[in-house]
User: Fold this.
Amino acid sequence: MEPLPSGLPEIVADNEDLARFLASSSQFNSRMVKPSAFLPEPKSRETSVFRHGREPVDALWHIGDEYAAQGRTIHGAAILTAQTVRSTALAVIAGEPPPRHAAIRNWPWIESDPELLKAQQKEIAIALAGTADFFKK
Amino acid sequence: MPEIIPITGDMEWLAPIRAMAGGSNAVSAEAQAVREMAANAVRFVEQSRALFGAKAEAIARLLSLANEYQAEQATLDLSSVALAERFLHALPDDFPLPEFSVEPDGVISLDWIESCHRLFSLSMNPSGRFAYAWLDGTDKGHGVARFDGRQVPRRILEGIAAIFKNGTATLRAA
Assistant:
């Protein structure tokens, strides 16, 4: 299988670290990242992450500023493994460009009851937030 | 325009809210709405801090977050902000106060975080049907409850209380 433009394999391995960049200081406190940081975007129905761990830290923040910020300030990152995400029945799918980008997909989706949908998504987001390591920039 | 009161001591956090209430060059309806809410918050804080200090400060933090999102032109549902303010007023005075964040759809989330393994999260859905979910050690769950604008649903109160019941934190005295 051909590698992606970044040189990474197309399949995200279970032991790969994923970084969820935080563009609001409200998405974390002094101890942890909050569940809202992991909820999916309503339009794309996915949560955007990057295939990168804590180190090297310069490269981590470069990716955040260059590809994730979209005009906002990156305040930090939540790091968790692909296996952690998959243990909640969600999927992690590589999606370049931008380089190292991946998407967390397969979120519950109920068109007929948006509040129940949000509740289901929040339960999963809490599980992700509870296991993610938070790093302040 | 509200009166600007000198800042002293531990009221310094109110400065950006006062500045917001004092007006800016922004003329959009959304900016005006936030400015009016900020003015209301300042008034509320100044008039009732002795009675509702912690709750008033929580409302000010909520409005400060709303202002941050407005300034960055990020997605924010102002009706959700208003609902969150009403919810805070309705919350019993002996209950812990939440932290705030904004969800991707612009809805305000209220989070009671005892630890990374014990938390309760509540979405201020504009419909008034609030989505909530919790993690309590190995126990977890989710649900929906309707808020009538005056009384916090019993299921939500019980969910918040359960998170703090066995933890190191205790329910804050009024």
Notes: DSSP finds four helices and five strands in chain B. Residues 10-74 of chain B form one domain. Helices of chain B lie at 15-21, 29-71, 78-90, 154-165. The two ends of chain B are 32 Å apart (CA to CA).
